[in-house]
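Checklist before submission:
- one chain only
- standard amino acids only
- sequence pasted in full

Submission:
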Amino acid sequence: MKTTKMIVAGALACMCLNSVQAQEKSEAPKGKAIIQVFGNFHTGFGADNDDRGFELDRSYLGYQYDLGKGLTVKGVMDVGQSDDVNDYHRIAYIKNAQLTWKTGKWTFNGGLISTTQFNYQEKQWGYRYLLKSFQDLYKFGSSADLGLSAAYQFTDWLSADAIIVNGEGYKKIQKADGLAYGLGATVTPLKGLSIRLYAGVNEGREATQTDVWNYAAFVGYKGNGFNIGAEYNLMENYKNVRGQDLSGFSFYGSADLSKTIAAYARYDQLMSKDGWNKAKDEQALILGAQFKCGQYVKIAPNFRLTMPAADGANNHYSAYVSCYFGL
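Returned file contents:
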């Protein structure tokens, strides 16, 4: 932990020093508030009829400050729910506390940063307030962590990125040795078409634990008024147990029906090697529409179907009205 903090602190200091030395003229600093609130009303059907009510999924509260000459600082609090089903209290975390420096074709990030494992796919999906992207939803990795990342834009159609973080996410402090590393590449051979490949390893913290490997392949296309994407994800040695592999597909798309109305759909399938996780393996479908109510509010009624892989398990049907407010 101390070594990681020293690396982060040293990198941040170097970034600041180099940026200051490169500045001959100062720019007026400017900032903006970060406010995002996700909520919903939902109800199940049939055997799930008792699962209904209003829910505040998550709130992001923070501030981003542009210091000029490519240097930006950002701090964000994440107010959400505990993973413990017996804990009904809301819990607040520091989601981001990062420094970003953009210079030439380089972008550097340091501190409690957004990870690169599925950030690109999440933006392509575009409806995070409805549902997390596949890897986030099924715990293939964390959306933020403490460490460093760097990206380089080789050409207009090719970029690459690298990241090194603690590997325990932003909700936990590092309690044991070990780091997580990732490499990604993004290709945009045609306007609107993007291809991304990613590979990463999260080191085992104990002598008896094996490393966790993550691989992801994504293809997406954004056209005039529509958006489609497909991804395949593989995680080997889930929770550091050799042979506990998870994989899955996610297909999604959306289309603008007017300036204020859009339709969307998504299909996920989670699978485990040799069925070791069959009790939680599933197929899931979500479809609905989004209505923009002014500049800051979105309302999205949607229908959801979950089909468990476990023998004899019943399908789950539910209806949601998801809401978003953000600046």
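Reviewer check: The chain has one domain: 2-17+29-326.
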